[in-house]
Specification:
This protein has six helices and five strands. The protein is an alpha+beta fold. The protein has two domains: 3-107, no CATH class; 110-168, no CATH class. Strands 1, 2, 3, 4 and 5 form a five-stranded antiparallel beta sheet that branches. The longest helix has 17 residues, at 3-19.
């Protein structure tokens, strides 16, 4: 049954290719969340395990307010072109991971704060659901720091910080140009 994932991936690529000229961030998110719901319906234990490991989180995230104002760190065209359309998948696991990565880029604010642990990346702005305290997470080493730069262990699941909170706290966007 895992070949169905590859079929769904090909359908996703075709749909995005057909709508490429009209796509914006919101319409791409709608397409990707539809794809996730399709993966969720596949009755295969391996696919379900991958869904729960990589995609279930984003169904929760899709209900949060304020994430539609987050500007992707990479250009939308690069995400569409290189991460989706030109991506050739050899295993059924890869499309699931690829969609997770694209959603991460589309939904999580990348700040101008450099990682104090590895120094190789700028940190993502995260928060506990419904809270106002920000945490900053490194994509590369997984380091988490609080607003004052102190390393943190978190007790619960973190979610993308709403853009309004990022703006309120005057967090700058990563200086990498789109």
């Amino acid at each position: 049954m895992s070949h169905i994932v590859l079929e769904k991936w090909n359908e996703l690529q075709l749909k995005i290719e057909q709508q490429r000229d009209e796509l914006n961030r919101e319409s791409l998110l709608i397409i990707l969340f539809d794809w996730i719901r399709g993966i969720k319906k596949i009755k295969d234990s391996k696919v379900q395990n991958l869904y729960h490991e990589y995609l279930a989180y984003f169904e929760e995230v899709s209900d949060l307010d304020g994430i539609l104002n987050i500007k992707p760190w990479y250009s939308l065209q690069e995400l569409i072109e290189y991460d989706i359309l030109k991506s050739t998948e050899l295993s059924f696991e890869r499309p699931i991971v690829k969609v997770r990565d694209v959603l991460w880029e589309l939904l999580v604010f990348k700040s101008d704060k450099e990682c104090p642990c590895c120094g190789d990346d700028n940190l993502r702005a995260m928060t506990y659901k419904g809270q106002k305290e920000l945490f900053f997470c490194c994509d590369i080493c997984g380091c988490i720091v609080d607003e004052d730069g102190g390393r943190k262990e978190v007790d619960d699941k973190l979610y993308p910080a709403p853009f309004e909170l990022v703006e309120l706290k005057k967090i700058g966007v990563s200086s990498i140009d789109n």
